[in-house]
Amino acid sequence: MPTEDHVQRFMQALLAVDQVEAQRLLATMRATLPPLRLVDHLIVPALEQIGVQWERGEAALSQVYMSGRICETLVQTLLPPDGVARPGQPKLAIAVLEDFHFLGKNMVCSALRASGFALMDYGHVDVAEAIHRVQADNIEVLLLSTLMLPSALKVKKVRAQLDKLGLQVKIVVGGAPFRFDTELWRAVGADAIGHNALEAIEVVRCLRSTPNPEDAPPWQWQP
Predict the structure, then answer these.
(1) Per-residue model confidence as pLDDT tens digits over 94-122
(2) Which of 41, 64, 106, 134 has the smallest set of CB atoms within 10 Å of its CB?
């Protein structure tokens, strides 16, 4: 089992954007631990600690982003490809709704995939495409990122159309409009909001298992 020292060394390699060292540290434990245990006990704790450092102003946003991308690459060598169903996981999809910013969405993708979640990345979608793809792919949790208020308000249309079709889909929102108006997520019919990309892991787990979505820890990503 990875010790705190292992986690710290792995975290320092990520902060230094040293993928070779991170891969070497991972390889030293790969022979003795199943892939998912490596993800849960080495990669996730390191990413969580980097997230805490960022919140304290001790790490740059670029370090958070690159750490997630490195871990995403490493996890791809450990786990089945994205899109392959994994036991106990909801079917996830993420998209930028009616906007053209991708940094935040990409950070969330990296955090989730680096933590062993399989999800579909829809890129940029409008309301109609979002509904079509969610229905076609039997998505259970849809993560939507917006930058501008008009785009954020379109989430309400997504919710209304999903409900009209009788689709039981959880919607998680994030982005600037939801930070500026802390009640906006409720107004547009979302199930959850939160504070950073790394917490997406816990939110997805809670939305899967918690009858009342308000009991789930909120999160959101930076646009």
Answers:
(1) 999 998 777 678 777 877 887 778 889 99
(2) 41
Residues 74 and 102 in one domain: no
Residue of 73, 77, 1, 11 whose CA lies nearest to 32: 1
What are the pLDDT digits (tens) for 59-84?
998 888 888 889 878 887 776 555 44
Tell me: do 56 and 107 sit in the same domain.
no
Q: Is residue 85 part of a domain?
A: no
Alpha-carbon distances, residue 106 vs 25, 34, 77, 160, 167 (angstroms): 25, 27, 19, 26, 26
Q: Which domain holds residue 143?
A: 92-215
d(CA 189, CA 186): 5
DSSP characters over the chain:
---HHHHHHHHHHHHTT-HHHHHHHHHHHHTTS-HHHHIIIIIHHHHHHHHHHHHTTSS-HHHHHHHHHHHHHHHHHHSPPTTS--TTPPPEEEEEES----HHHHHHHHHHHHTT--EEEEEEE-HHHHHHHHHHHT-SEEEEE-SSHHHHHTHHHHHHHHHHTT---EEEEESHHHHHSTTHHHHTT-SB-BS-GGGHHHHHHHHHH-SSGGGSPPB----
